[in-house]
Amino acid sequence: MPAADSNDVAILQQVFHPSDFTPASETAFAHALKAALVAQADLTILHVSTKENSDWTEFPGVRATLERWGLLPRNSSTSDVAKLGIGVKKIQARHDDPVESVTAYLKSHNADLIVLATDQSKEQFQWLSKSVAEPIARKTRLMTLFIPKGLNGFVSLKDGSISLNSILIPVATVPPPQPAIQAAVRLARRMNIPKGVFNLVHVGDKTTMPAVSVPDLPGWTSNVLTKQGEVIDVIVETAAEVKADLIVMTTDGRNGFLDALRGSHSERILRRTPCPLLAIPAGGFISSVM
């Protein structure tokens, strides 16, 4: 296998986290904050409310969290956060539709990764419930990390520790799986995970599995699985079987992080997944540099 990419060019410079101040969003916030810390990126937290004014104290406490994680001393200041190499911006927006507010923000602001919570129990995910009429080309750059409600994810809100030892990567001819594989390897390397398994699952025969390459990463091994059955069932069942901490997959949507999932395999997996899901839009900026 080829050596892991040692290129230190920053792929993530802007992490974007829409929050509704629920416990599920707190878990997503922990993942967004950890991503910003690892990438030395800026973190923007956006809260959309129908109220004229929301209480700023409801926003996730960045300094309190970093203090709890042991990265800042008690009673730290805003300048101490900057010393960690990240910038933090908190924005309140008043709008009746959170989806429209988020997409409006993304029209005029850069983002490389979106981290948000989803509710699997609802008939439709809040963030996927409304069609985005105007395609926004900039959104094709975005990776999106979905944290389903009720799951702890792989970043501890309590102490910031990471539990990421099993990553599942679905492999199909379309969309191309290589960007997802590269993203998974890069994530494990950047988060300094000492050992783990990249589980590649293909639904079909070995003869139909596309050729892929998994870069070498010390301490990590590859496990290639080929199975028969309904695609979504196989992926979800395999995620449980290998105790996946994360699913990483390429999505075929090109009009943004919402349209990338709507009606796709990714959305159907997201409704049943036992772990977070990282979606990499095919044809986007991130996909092109992976």
TrEMBL record:
Belongs to the universal stress protein A family. This is UspA domain-containing protein. InterPro entries: Universal_stress_UspA, UspA. It comes from the Bacteria. Residues 18-147, 224-281 form the UspA domain. The lineage of its organism: Bacteria, Pseudomonadati, Nitrospirota, Nitrospiria, Nitrospirales. It comes from Nitrospira japonica. Coiled coil: none annotated. PANTHER family: STRESS RESPONSE PROTEIN NHAX, UNIVERSAL STRESS PROTEIN UP12.
